[in-house]
Amino acid sequence: MGGPHSGRPGISALIAARNRVQAAQADIALASVPAHTLHVLRIIGLDQTLRLLPGTES
Known about the structure:
Number of helices: 2
Structural class: mainly alpha
Helix content: 40-55%
Strand order of the largest sheet: 1-2
Radius of gyration: 12 Å
Order of helices and strands: HEHE
Number of strands: 2
């Protein structure tokens, strides 16, 4: 995950956000996930718990 939310802090933030959203009985999704980030999400299993959407073209 590139940028300021890379690595373990970024993953922890995603998990915390997912937990808060689920506790509120809501949904969370990620869009336009770069290939390298998607690979990390798959390795740790977050691709199974987060909804992943394709990007939108401008």
